[in-house]
Design a protein that fits this description.
Strand order of the largest sheet of chain A: 4-5-11-7-6
CATH class of the largest domain in chain A: Mainly Alpha
Number of strands of chain A: 11
Pfam family, one (chains A, B): Acyl-CoA_dh_N
Cofactor (chains A, B): FAD
Largest interface: A-B, 110 and 110 residues
Organism (chains A, B): Candidatus Nucleicultrix amoebiphila FS5
CATH topology of the largest domain in chain A: Butyryl-CoA Dehydrogenase, subunit A, domain 3
Keywords (chains A, B): FAD, Flavoprotein, Oxidoreductase
Structural class of chain A: alpha+beta
Number of helices of chain A: 19
Shape of chain A: globular
EC number (chains A, B): 1.3.99.41
Oligomer: homodimer
CATH architecture of the largest domain in chain A: Up-down Bundle
Chain lengths: 597, 597
């Protein structure tokens, strides 16, 4: 049986010590954000995740969801846990007070989400998608729709879904076939089949609100003819009570590699009543409001699962007795030394710890920028924060999930054969984590978004939101003695990033394949540089506290930074070389030479 | 539904064109090894894998093995397939003719095994372990035991297992507790519990022969007090017929992440009758005969699963229509372009193709050296070949499985969301492949074996079996025009390998943690250099044939080599940097600083 401990101390370090609550306090409504409030939320959400969600993780995987006659039964205990999360308000922390939410910063949502997904990612998808749907409707819906639907979404009585994918189109939404025909009474009749719909059908809420993209009659072909509709499972009457069943049915659920407690549905819309959200033919842009938040969420999911996997690998490495330290017996009174004495096991543990703490810094940095972009009083601050969020969203999504998945595999490896059997729960983390590299846009698409869209946007303006502070930091700390061992390495890695950015941006103008070929390596190179910058900042925070009572924590921060710089940051050199080699070997390779031979 | 095509053409390239059959023909009994024989075997084994084993792969995963009252039922169809593989002789290609085998080179076994494991790795374990057990008994057993057991093993009537692991000891076999007490009649009574026993119980054969390591009464503690015993499920009577049931019982089977068609058993020995194999207290050395062959096998398993995963990703990439090429529409008559036009998809496909073909060259190189080490008439040739096999065994095991697993994940990624659902079979490849990084010694142990044992052995003699031919090749081809773009890169990577070898060997003398800390990176660096060397050789073979009727194949070889050199070989630079950073960050890191926080 695995275990879970909410990473309160480290989250608190990042929020309060590294970035500082004042970042949030300065924003609109920020006066509420006190130290005590943050502590209370972290502690309570952590406890809830440890005690309520986590015990359902393995059983939920084993039992999975059951489909019968259009209905879906979630695993035992999910309903009670759902009621409990709704009552506690953890699922609506950042929803506006106007609609019954707590109006707290997005950042708090992010920390809650990491813990929820660590404890039970399959469960976490149910409230998670509702949060995305809430954001979509609250920003783009008419007042009428908002009044009718938002309060019950915040209360958790009604849940939300995103219905994008069809069997023949995932990435390429321009091909979608689902149709919308005006019903003459202000609404539309929606017809078509959507697949891979998370939470498309389940028994947790009394109503399910599907946010469906479809092509209205007579709309242009391609991506510019797509509109967004809200299609409730049950029609909501004028008085807010539930009316008749809408013509939307769950045809089946998928048998998946993991997240088995989450129902992934095939949904048939057969002239179902739907309400236009936003303007006609502007559905894709609207959907991206939700999608971008979801992408940050998915990064966080990968992070959460990696963290719980690490925790279990760590405790196994401390307990499992096997072999003796290479430099001589460490625990003569035991039958063997715990495997944490072995350098290769330490390498695995430190790789996990380092990336997980790296990624937490990255995720919360961007989360706070989301809050700044939405709530700062200063339009310039809002703008720069928004630019940074645009730039970093694909990085958070893809890097946290690529790395997150790798970390679950390292954690499994620490267990040896015991990791491969279901009992210890390690293989479930691997299976659950794997989806995060795929959904809400595969990581290849994220990389293309970063390099093809975000890099050139507004003549590089988004990039400046990152390059500028890093450049300033490097210049400002060239002679900071505490950072002497780090700064030359940071400057070198940053130089590599600048050089590939300039090179590929230029080459890409005449040959877009240069961008496509470099994109994935570029995203990883970028992320490593970003993380190196954050570790240098973390060292500055930790250094004065190494002799405090929390010496293990703070000295650990510095030593972890050192491990990152010495052992992981060198990856930037091979990524640099691979990117600079260009696209030719890829693009000139003949299709018939791929085989199979 | 996935598909499988045996990679006959590429295997044939490696065997016949790259290395040449004359390598095998020169060996004892090599006159039989004709072109036609090889073709016939490749074709027939390939067909068998495609038509008999592969159709049982997905159903076997779904159904799994069933345990009931000490008996294990394998999935539907396994029994018939097993009978069929036994009748065809594919499972005993390399067993000696003296015992009824075909006496063919180990190399042929290796190619058969790659295909068998690609088609159905879970099934492949049943005959695979018998082959290892056969090797063990045929080399170390008494004449009496050999006569009694080997013929029926070769016939496939009786199968074999390796019983090493106990709940508290896997890597550290010195801790094992299973006991052997002389029964006064020349045999022993074996008592203890073994776990993770592949094929420990099943319904495919009439008898199961367990090769069990145990501590004989009064034996020294630790690894030097371990002996090897043959414990049959049914006692074999003097006339060779089956007698009474031995006191060995399957207590349960594991629920695993993958290879669900393979029964992984907990075995209870309760005073079971066992026969000593080899000398008392020399069991671990004996077991390593089997283990080393098994390690090469496991590398091959990782390779096989990667290959089938690649094939399916490739055909999906050619069929799936999504988006348009970045440089303009490629297939205007289709609703969208096939995703193979996208640079990032090509990157994924080429990465898979390149590593898979790399690893096939590596595996077959070492396989042929195994044959040379066993069958050459020249003792010096035997010695050098044996040295190379010792050196490369951990590399084949760990590199082919680390890379193999990564390739299954890339293949899944090409499918997007469709890769995550069970239907397409891609997620099964990931789950099945994952065990190969663990069993027969985790890949961390392989790395330690390479650096801690093989590197320093006989003052570096094993290393010379690799360094010498590579050095010669580099010197001999400095001015070969066909290799102009490759040789400087090969020389550079080789230089890095030499430098880290010298550095760590020296540092390791005073501080063995330096070896432990570098080992995994070193193994990967070593493998990349070895593969670079083999690609350069492959280019020399392919270059004169690029204008033949098989231009797609040969030009593809050269372009694949180019991709390897430009995009994958640069990894050696970051591995080099990480290794040279030493062990300090790992070893000085305080245990209490690992958290969890």
């Amino acid at each position: 049986m695995p275990s879970y401990k909410a990473p309160i101390r480290d989250i608190s370090f990042v929020l309060k010590e590294l970035y500082g609550l004042e970042v949030l306090q300065k924003l609109k409504g920020g006066s509420e954000i006190t130290d005590d409030l943050i502590d209370a939320i972290l502690t309570e959400v952590g406890r809830f995740c440890e005690n309520v969600l986590f015990p359902l993780n393995q059983t939920g995987d084993k039992e999975g969801c059951r489909y019968e006659n259009g209905e879906v039964r979630t695993p035992k205990g999910f309903k009670e846990a759902y009621n409990s999360i709704v009552e506690s308000g953890w699922a609506s922390l950042s929803c506006e007070t106007e609609w019954g939410g707590q109006g707290l910063p997005h950042t708090l949502n992010t920390v809650a989400e990491e813990m929820i997904c660590a404890a039970n990612i399959a469960f976490g998808l149910y409230p998670g998608l509702t949060r995305g749907a809430y954001a979509l409707l609250s920003r783009h819906g008419s007042e009428e729709l908002k009044k009718k639907f938002l309060p019950n979404m915040v209360k958790g009585k009604w849940s939300g879904t995103m219905c994008l994918t069809e069997a023949h189109c995932g990435t390429d939404l321009g091909m979608l076939r689902t149709k919308a025909v005006p019903d003459g009474a202000g609404a539309y009749k929606i017809s078509g089949t959507k697949i891979f719909i998370s939470s498309g059908e389940h028994d947790l809420t009394e109503n399910i609100l599907h946010f469906v993209i479809a092509r209205a009659e007579g709309a242009p072909a391609g991506i510019k003819g797509i509109s967004l509709f809200l299609v409730p499972k049950f029609i909501v009457k004028g008085d807010g009570s539930l009316g008749e069943r809408n013509n939307v049915q769950c045809a089946s659920i998928e048998h998946k590699m993991g997240i088995k407690g989450s129902a992934t549905a095939v949904m048939n819309f057969d002239g179902a009543e739907g309400y236009l959200v936003g303007e006609l033919n502007e559905g894709v842009n609207k959907m991206f409001t939700m999608m971008n938040l979801e992408r940050l969420s998915v990064g966080n999911q990968g992070q959460g699962v990696a963290d719980i996997a690490y925790q279990n690998a760590l405790s196994y490495a401390k307990e499992r007795l096997q072999g003796r330290a290479l430099t001589g017996v460490k625990f003569p009174d035991k039958a063997a030394d715990p495997i944490i004495v072995h350098p290769d096991v330490r390498r695995m543990l430190l790789t996990m710890k380092t990336y997980i703490e790296s990624n937490r810094m990255l995720a919360l940095w961007v989360a706070m920028e989301v809050d700044k972009s939405e709530r700062s009083e200063d339009p310039e601050v809002r703008q720069i924060a928004d630019d940074l969020v645009h730039l970093m969203t694909p990085i958070v999504k893809a890097f946290l999930t690529d790395v997150g998945f790798d970390m679950t595999n390292i954690a499994l490896q620490v267990f040896g054969g015991h990791g491969y059997i279901q009992e210890h729960g390690m293989e479930q983390f691997v299976r659950d984590s794997r989806i995060t590299q795929i959904y809400e846009g595969t990581n290849g698409i994220q990389a293309l978004d970063l390099m093809g869209r975000k890099m050139p946007a507004h003549f590089g303006r988004y990039l400046r939101a990152f390059f500028h502070p890093v450049q300033q930091f490097i210049e400002g700390h060239q002679n900071t003695p505490e950072l002497a061992e780090f700064m030359p390495l940071l400057a070198k890695a940053f130089g590599r990033l600048q050089q590939v950015t300039a090179t590929i941006a230029q080459k890409g103008m005449s040959n877009p394949n240069e961008i496509g070929a470099a994109a994935t390596d570029y995203l990883h190179l970028f992320a490593h540089v970003a993380v190196a910058y954050l570790w240098a900042r973390a060292v500055l925070v930790a250094m004065p506290k190494v002799n405090s009572t929390e010496s293990a924590f703070y000295q650990g921060k510095i030593d972890t930074a050192r491990f990152f710089y010495q052992k992981l940051l060198p990856k930037t050199s091979s990524l640099f070389a691979s990117i600079m080699a260009g696209s030719e070997t890829l693009m000139k390779f003949k299709d018939e030479s791929f085989g199979p031979f």
